[in-house]
Specification:
Elements lengths: L2 H15 L6 H7 L11 H20 L4
Length: about 60
């Protein structure tokens, strides 16, 4: 995934975390996921890795009754 796709994923996630009246890019910058130019930071990369790992964890519990 290139940096633009990474930034897009971060902004998409920030849409769910931020206030409705705050642009996703501002939310992501405020949380340290994007830098001032809109490029992913190390924290942004860490966020996506954590989300990807969480997706794998959740699938394990789907079969638990």
């Amino acid at each position: 995934m290139d940096e633009q796709e990474t930034a897009d994923r971060i902004r998409a996630f920030a849409t769910h975390c931020g206030r409705a009246d705050t642009p996703p890019e501002a939310t992501a910058r405020n949380r340290g996921w994007l830098d001032a130019e809109g490029h992913p930071t190390e924290a942004g990369h860490d966020l996506l890795r954590a989300l990807d790992e969480q997706g794998e964890t959740r699938s394990v519990f789907r079969t638990v009754l």
